Amino acid sequence: GQKIFLHRRRDSEILSLLSQTRLMRTTNAAFSQPNTMLSTINNASSTARITTRTSSTSSFCCSSSSSPFSASRFCNNNTKNFNAHNDATSSSSSSSTKVFLKTKIYTNSRHNQQSRNRRFVVNSSSSFSTNSATATDVDVSTVTTTSNDKFNWQKNWYPASPVSFLETDAPNAIKILGLEMVVWKTKNGWSCLEDSCPHRRAPLSLGFIDSNKDALVCRYHGWEFAKDGKCVDIPMSIDENANATACNSKKSCASEYPCKMHAGVLWVWPETGADAFLEASVKKCATENFSELQGAGDNEWGMVELPVGYNPALENQFDPSHAEWLHARYDAESNMRSVSEMADFVPMTKFESFDDDTTEGFKVRHGGYNAANSNIDATRVFTAPCSSRSEYLDDKGKPYLSAHILYTPTEPNRTLMFTKFQAYQFTAVQGAGTRKVSVADKIENLFTTPVRNLFNLYIQNFNTIGDARLIFTGLQHGAGNAAYTLGNQDIRAMHGVEKDMKKRGGKWNKAYYLPTVADKGVSAFRTWMDNFTENGNVEWLDGSAVDATPTVSEEEQTERYHRHTKHCRACKAALNELGILEERLLLASKVLLATSLITGFGGALVGNEGLPVLTLSLAGLSLLGVEEVRDMQHEFVSSTPRRGVPKPKLW
């Protein structure tokens, strides 16, 4: 048996000694392990003296009953699993022992509770014997935080794409944690394989789907693969026996990753092998933990690939007050926030984090941050590694707004972001508010409305793919600056943060100054990352460097094709249809211009110039249409204006 006595100046608390070398949380005052018995803490203080009676181990854990700094709070909320490191010599020899505990010291202030790290270092000179135990006094002088519980980045579900974004008749290249994969639609559902043919390692995403054989075909040499990655045909085999022998070899198989659909999203588990499929089958993806939201419009998820890293992307989500400044509307003349076009900001007075002591994630609860939502009560749940679910309630406890945002780190400095919102009340509008409609806008609408109706009629009846709805969905995503403006604002700020953090060594608690209540969400996320991940960063499965933070130009930050268009089936269809319309308008303008020239000479001879004038006018309108269509195509590719200064307008 073992006893530990910690003499402190306040409150008596209970300490329990566990066998082995692992420090674990507990709420019981006594245990049934063979080498463990009840221990007691008296007179808590920043220094302590420990008297131990030990036989073979010296790892321990706390449990408690009372006091602001009690062991129950210490163990239940803030301790993880820790190791007590002991250096023992042979029978009846002395050793020096260090024992590490993790704790948070809470101090009350006018704005917040701060958690600080202290280090308990237990130095002992213990004499170990195989047959008897020797009592030893141990002094505790300092406090630290060290955790053995680390988040496993590989053993989790990640959102790869909204299902509606994926091509069903062609392979889709995806990337998760640096791993390159290909997803394709089979007759029995989706399949996810490594994006590498085992023959010569060409990307399988360059291939095509043979619907007759239900196989993915490598375009390099025609190797064919089934849903599970097994090679089913090698065209260059000399005969059937040789083909069967090669196909039955494990070396001819492409590695398969678990994947599944849920809530309109394709989820992928970035690990291969039988164990991976077993583990994936018993673990829920993030959307399975919440009710599905009914999004706006066609109930689709939005998705973009941000040119910023995972950490700045996630911490931006836990900083709601930034919307009142970064996404505000600014007066064109004074360059000040336009209070007339949006609700004024309100300083946040409530923000707290809780349930933050496990690798599963944490929760934050906060109040409002503008005049429209100042009375709301919001909860944000972070489910590691990819989900942030927000629920807003008004002052009467009625639903106000729900939001589900998903994140997937694809490679260093690039992160997929999925969004879906459901507003329950009219005032539940985040972001830049609504721009005033001026007289000039109304006059412009008189001319553009007929043209818009004609364009819609063309898409409805003369599109080349036979799916007008898909094209209209793409046009809704891409044609227009409003869909990208908020994202551009976030990206410019987040990239600046990421670049400057690299210069400062990446230590947020040294680089940031977070004095307000509104900053607590950022602190909660960064603290969780420090506690449960290696060096507070993503673990890239392809061995990518964590600190690879390139300087990206403003134009690259605000480009649109790689951010969204290339991922979205609807946007690619719309962009392709606009290209065809441009070619048709150009051809029409050439024909009409030639007709105008020919009839113009004849009309001049007979004194009838009506037809040439009409055809010339139609040729001019066709050229105007060409320019308008080119502008629309450009909006799928970049936020940089086609004309004038090549600088995106953010506000």
What are the SSEs and their pairings?
Elements: E1 3-9, E2 13-17, E3 22-23, E4 38-44, E5 48-54, E6 60-63, H1 71-76, E7 82-86, E8 93-99, E9 105-108, E10 113-116, E11 122-128, E12 134-140, E13 158-162, E14 172-176, E15 179-186, E16 189-194, E17 208-210, E18 215-217, E19 224-225, E20 231-233, H2 240-248, E21 256-257, E22 259-262, E23 265-268, H3 274-282, E24 302-306, H4 310-317, H5 323-326, E25 351-358, E26 361-366, E27 377-383, E28 387-393, E29 399-411, E30 414-423, H6 439-462, H7 468-478, H8 482-503, H9 508-511, H10 520-532, H11 554-557, H12 569-606, H13 610-635
Parallel strand pairs: 1-4
Antiparallel strand pairs: 1-5, 2-4, 2-6, 3-7, 5-12, 7-8, 8-11, 9-10, 11-12, 13-23, 14-15, 15-16, 16-21, 17-18, 18-19, 19-20, 22-23, 24-30, 25-26, 26-27, 27-28, 28-29, 29-30
Helix pairs in contact: 4-8, 4-10, 7-12, 12-13
